[in-house]
Amino acid sequence: MNKEIMEQIIKVTENDLLTINNYTAKDALKDVARKALKRATTNRDPLFWPAGMLMLGLSEASLSPSDTASELISQEFRDEMKNILCEYLDKWIKNGEQAGFVDDSVAGMALIKLYESTGDKRYHHGAAMIANFLAQAPKNSEESIIYNPSKGNDLIYADGAGQSAMFLARYGTVFHKRNAIALAAKQLLAFHADGFDKKSGLPYHAFSLSQDKKAGIIGWGRAVGWLMMGYSEILSNIYREENHKSNPIEDSILKSTMDKLMSQFYSLIKVTLEYQRPDGGFSWLLPATEGEADTSATAMIAYSMANWLKRGMFHSHAADLSEQVQKAVQGAGEFLLENTENGSVGQSLSSCEDIAVHRQVYGHYPWGQGCTLAFLSIL
Description:
mainly alpha, 3-stranded antiparallel sheet, two-stranded antiparallel ribbon, Glycosyltransferase, about 375 residues
């Protein structure tokens, strides 16, 4: 990767975010057709996860790139990305919009990063709005956040578990809210207990505690990616909290939780790496190694591992995995660049329309673009 390629990827990501809420007459007609077929229509929440993934990429590239990536991104580009993020989120704040979906957690990561960078209390307020929504959202008896309670079920999605854990962990650390970190941990611990396939060690897409059933397919790439992103972020933040010892009882509980999460994360990494394709990518369905590759799943899985590598944690906690993960991350990077043309990341699986409804449409989508930039920015 060189400076020109990185800047092309940034430009496409910026444009995707600036145009993501353009709702045309053609889009309206498509929604009419989708509604008639009882399919999901366009979600116009400005913080919904596709926009959140673009913001994750832009915030990593502008506010916290690795030393290697920072050499490829000029200060002018970093300022431009930061300004676009501020303008986008300022509009959401100015319009007085509220957090309304678990998926808003991803955009919340950018709000926290902007607060850390600028000290602007508006971004703290925006992040607090998302944290309060998650704290008050309907939950099952294990305090897992129900993904879409309006549908009248108690399904817990891998998407929501990973997204909320990622955000709440960062929020709790930056704003000194240990209850947020505790809620983050519960999402992953419960999903591991109730939403994983015991034989393969891979997650289902969702589970229902009340019906004692698991739903969706096993090993969907983005489901694995969401959970791994949640694990890497919460472990990084718990590690930071653990170093601020204040209450011996609280610290012992924190250490015990970290050990459980770390064991689960490493087990998931080991299983996931068994399914890495020869070309360095991961398939839309991990065990389908000879099926369609998916850049979005690949970027998410690689981002989670690169995030953990960046913190230097493999060396101190799982040295045996360190070399294998580094090779996997390198291979994933090469795969993503092979599927990028003029800065546009292709070969991404389209959105999931419902449990086990994964239409095999591949192309350029915000989630593949945004997470690829996030990954390359911290590689």
